[in-house]
Amino acid sequence: MLDIKGWLKREFFQSLEITPYYQPIIDLYNSQVVGYEALSRFLLKGESLPPSKVFRMAEEIGVLGELDMICRERSVLIFPKGLNSLLFLNVSPSYLASEYFGKNKTLELVESVGLRPESVVLELSEVERVKDVELLKRAIGHYKSLGFLVGIDDIGTGYNSLQLLLELDGHLDFVKFPRELVNGVSRSKIKYQLLKVLTEVSLQMGIRPIYEGVEQEEDVKTLYYELKAHLFQGFYFAKPMPATEIVNFEPSIDLRLREEEDYIQGEVPLVIKLEPREKFHRLLELLENSQKRYFLLDTGLKRFLIDFWKLKYSLNQKLRDLYYYKDLKTVIERLPHLFMDLDSLPYISPEAFKIKSLLEELLSSKYDFLLIKKGQEVQILEKQHLLDLFYKELSKELLDKNPLTQLPGNRAIGEKIEELSKRGEDFYVCYLDLDNFKAFNDAYGFYLGDQMIKKVGLFLSLFEKEDPNKRFVGHIGGDDFIILLWGEDVSKLVEELLYLIKNLQKELLAFYSQEDRERGYFVGKDREENLREFPIASISAVLLKGSSNLLDLSKRSAKYKKIVKAQRGSALFVEDLNQILTIAL
């Protein structure tokens, strides 16, 4: 009897040519390659086929596990050694579970070529449904005990659902978010919110997220700056390449770093080239076959911006029939409001404004867009996109601001320090706090304590507004505040700070009783619950040379604060002078 199944297997593998390719996974924060995903390219009887189709065929024939292993074997065997990077291997969940029962072929394969399991990530693919999650968890546990790392691919697509991610809590090292979510995240509020939640959940589970399928710079910037993403994979950085090319591969990262003002990225409209004598219906056919809203019509002599939504809405059936067979020149002349001469439209610089300024300009414009010109390239910045950007910025600001003082919090403080450091500008950091604030709170009550903190916040805000181009004020928390200063020599800064602290003391006197103001102290409990006298309106401050190393700043601040707080009354320690300056009321 003819063994049909056996014949199909032999025919399938004899006709199939498998070539491993490798796509880099980039750590953008450190500008380096952390790993390569092994991807198989297939030729079946000389015809190129997508991997998804080949794996479906293998599943139908009943050779999915064998194909899975062959791809893995070839990817491991020709992977260059000594790269000091991770190798990501796609594994079907069922095959991984079957290996749990004593086969350990993947371990033998990896060790046979001199790789360590700790440098290999077994990436669960989405090609099949996981039927027994508990068995899969035991299998993952087994492989992790051998040293392998484990990831899950394309969460939210195929059979890899969010439910599976949650069920594998504690078992995964990496999670990949698919191109369907990543591509266009800078322009989609829904994708942005979904990725934000998924990122937060993954990090809380101790899983490192990888953003797959990145192709656009604006998406990279949104993920990197707003979601604090580090690991990326996609054509923006590199296409999959054969093993011979990854040996000398160096990532070329040309991502423009955002400074204080936001870098605005618009959408490049599709260019349609048609001569003026061509018929209008030819243009309509090209427009209707695209999903875009904005187009550039290049007639050779002039370029016109077309809002297809507006054009479609304005053309009722009567007008459509009237102009359908007219030449473009005639239609453009008769409908100038639908064919906007590009040379007559206003442009903005992509770096000239902050989002808020751009929004104000757009809201006062008669158009639903702004144009950005970069060389010969034209970009469209739509009103809705700008509103979305503004919403994101506003949300971040509101979440970071201290609820009592409305001053920027730790995220904004860190970003400002990073910005000043990158500019190479000398700056100083002043840490300022209220002495004996806990004792004041206990003696006078939390309401007056909150009012005192608000007063300090307001006073420091006014100090910043006097010279916002050289000052930045933030609220670290509790009674701790920070002032960043630049553009002045240290002697001038010391003079300004002494004047600030002296006047702030006077403002704070109003929070004490007449009796305490007259005697110059209040009675309260110290941290050991002993009653003692505390000076009123006393402030401690230290002025340090700025640094991008936040840990170093914190250590130096703590060291010098101890010295300052040993003084009775207000004092400022100046690191450059190695001197304590006392401030009398």
Which features does this protein show?
8-stranded mixed β-barrel, 6-stranded mixed beta sheet, 3 domains, alpha/beta, TIM Barrel
Polypeptide structure, described:
The chain has 23 helices and 24 strands. The chain has 585 residues and is an alpha/beta fold. It folds into 3 domains: 4-246, TIM Barrel (Alpha-Beta Barrel); 270-388, CBS-domain, CATH 3.10.580.10; 404-583, 2-Layer Sandwich (Alpha-Beta Plaits), CATH 3.30.70.270. Helix 16 (355-363) crosses helix 17. The longest helix is centred in the C-terminal third of the chain and has 21 residues, at 446-466. It is flat.
- Count of strand segments: 24
| Mean pLDDT over the residues | 83
Query: How would you write the strand order of the largest sheet?
Result: 1-2-4-5-6-7-8-9
Task: Write the CATH architecture name of the largest domain.
Answer: Alpha-Beta Barrel
**CATH topology type of the largest domain:** TIM Barrel
In helices, the fraction of residues equals 40-55%
Unreliable parts: 256-262
What is the structural class? alpha/beta
The tally of structural domains comes to 3
Tertiary shape: flat
